[in-house]
Amino acid sequence: PTNQNVSGGLIFEGEPYMAINPSNPQHIVVAWIGFVFQQPSGIKSRASFDGGQTWSTTAILPHFRPTYKSADPSLVFDTNGDVLACYVDYRQSPDSGGTFVVRSTNGGLTWGTTMHQVIDAYEDGLKLPVDRPWLTIDRSGGAFDGNLYVTTKPAPWVPAPNRPYFMRSTDGGNSWSNWQYLDATGFLVGNLIAAPMATSAVAADGNLHILYPSYVPSQNLLPGYLLASSSDGGATFQYKEAWFSLINGNDSLIKAGYQLLTDPSDANHIAFVTPQNLLGDQDIYYLESTDAGLNWAAPVRVNDDATANG
């Protein structure tokens, strides 16, 4: 009935991520980046077992090295009810660290100290492919049930050209495949996008879908988004165009994130939510496909304020 201050911090608390247990909707875990006294900034978390009415004591997720700082948490519940967190743990000057996964076996109350590295900061030369790691899990009950997938991009200060990265785990996050570029010939990000973030989701039939930006005039005269889909657990991908449009440019202050979602009751139903400037200022748009990304309906403007009102 009332809003609650979950983080409760007096100094910066941000980049929150929430996961709800598919087997128990009363079980919620939230993670965020926050200030830790006499330590580098870290990832904090709290859990609720009564739908958010009460929350556990704040837990602090581990650092791989004492000098590393953490950011960009994402969470999933696995098929055993454990919670997995994926985040950046990293140090600048000299650069070191990477993207890691850690596990909680008690519903997010505490976290294990064993951190499994998904990708290292120097896996791709000086591109630092550790930023914005999004963790996705297959809970379809099919052949790849339990597979974990992570997408990342280069650090925000790395100039273009950049490409998105893809890794997968078939053993609950203990080990990870060699990284690969997510884009491919004919479906490239291009040389003009500095932060090609990829967003992923697994459909009810176990198919993996990942959306990422692209601007290559020889592929399409317009900027837009491509969809990479895999029916074999991320071993191979098939590509198609999702949405391309004239865009007026983004506000320099906007948090220009976007998200891909799949319908748990319909494997062919995919949704995409994105902030874009199509009518003179930033708006939130919703697009959906009912044939697994082959065709997409026209974008629907979600907010209802006057257009181009600044």
Brief summary:
With 310 residues, the chain is mostly beta strands. It has no helices and 20 strands.
Distance between the termini: 32 Å
Query: Which regions contain 5 or more consecutive residues with pLDDT less than 50?
Result: none
The helix/strand series, from N terminus to C terminus, equals EEEEEEEEEEEEEEEEEEEE
How many DSSP helices?
A: 0
Mass-distribution shape:
globular
Could you give a short account of the major beta sheet? 4 strands, antiparallel
- Helix vs. strand class: mainly beta
Widest sheet: strand ordering = 1-2-3-4
- Estimated share of beta-strand residues: 35-45%
Number of strands: 20
Rg over CA atoms:
19 Å
The percent range for helix content is under 10%
Q: What's the rounded overall pLDDT mean?
A: 95
In words, what does this structure look like?
With 310 residues, the chain is mainly β. The chain is built from no helices and 20 strands. It has strands at residues 13-21, 24-34, 42-48, 59-60, 69-77, 83-91, 96-104, 116-120, 131-137, 148-153, 165-169, 180-181, 199-202, 208-214, 224-230, 238-244, 259-263, 266-276, 283-289, 300-301. The two termini are 32 Å apart.
